[in-house]
Automatic annotation (TrEMBL):
UniProt catalytic activity: cyclic dehypoxanthinylfutalosinate = 1,4-dihydroxy-6-naphthoate + dihydroxyacetone
The protein's name in its UniProt record: 1,4-dihydroxy-6-naphtoate synthase
Broadest EC class assigned to this enzyme: lyase
SUPFAM superfamilies the record matches: Periplasmic binding protein-like II
Described function: Catalyzes the conversion of cyclic dehypoxanthine futalosine (cyclic DHFL) into 1,4-dihydroxy-6-naphthoate, a step in the biosynthesis of menaquinone (MK, vitamin K2).
Gene3D superfamilies membership: Periplasmic binding protein-like II
Pathway: Quinol/quinone metabolism; menaquinone biosynthesis
Originating gene: mqnD
Amino acid sequence: MKKTLIAHSPDADDIFMYYAIKFGWVDMKDTHFDNIAKDIQTLNEDALNGVYDIVAISFALYPHIKSEYAPLRTAVSFGEGYGPKVIKRKGERLKRNFKVALSGEHTTNAMLFRIAYPEARVTYMNFLDIEQAVIDGDVHAGVLIHESILTYANELEVEREMWDIWQELAGKELPLPLGGMAIRRSLPLTKSIEYENTLTKAVQVARDHKDRLSKMLLERDLVRIDAQTLDKYLELYANDESITLSAIQYEAINKLFEIGYKHGFYDTPVDIKDYLIPTEYTELRNS
């Protein structure tokens, strides 16, 4: 039986979307799935270095790995009126060149932040350390991601919502593309299609059994938040729109790539649909 490792972040939405496989509710013939959890910037760097066959990434990274990886249509996280938050200590006024902590150079929030605040002095750190760095005064501000957007300390306040920055840059109301999954292009095409179908089914099954799966994750201490926060968080980032990419989500991803290209983050324009796994291959092959 082939062992397949899926690399994802330790935040609750990624764990939720994967664990229907881990708990044996979804499987794939002749394949044993295992997982590893790392912070999102480490995963981005691993994707740049081609470490894993299937890996979670920030959408903003994808144009840098398009030759080696195909984007998966499933296990995606978008903001819809919400997203990462620029936070600071309460009452503090930020100067133009304030020092800010971001969760990684290749994250979506980092690209959008750097476009919106070109004079800010950026430092990168693990997303779990950002809140404390702001509280301790090591930085003037930080961009919170994952569950911390719901649980940050009372001595902090929101300077600006990343959602608002995104809407201004996009020029229209589109969902904010945050993260998804990518699969190595060198894998056999039929196998890649099978992986994508299996992962899509896993996210669907997780959604269909949300309450039961959430309870199991909490009982096993697999998530860092309480039941009420988990329920709210999953509705933000592991919802029914996470199962498979929609037309408006494709549009949003391409707008993100367009913005990145315009501001010099990418060398060439990218259309996400040009790089998807051609799922029609299975039908053509069997016709």
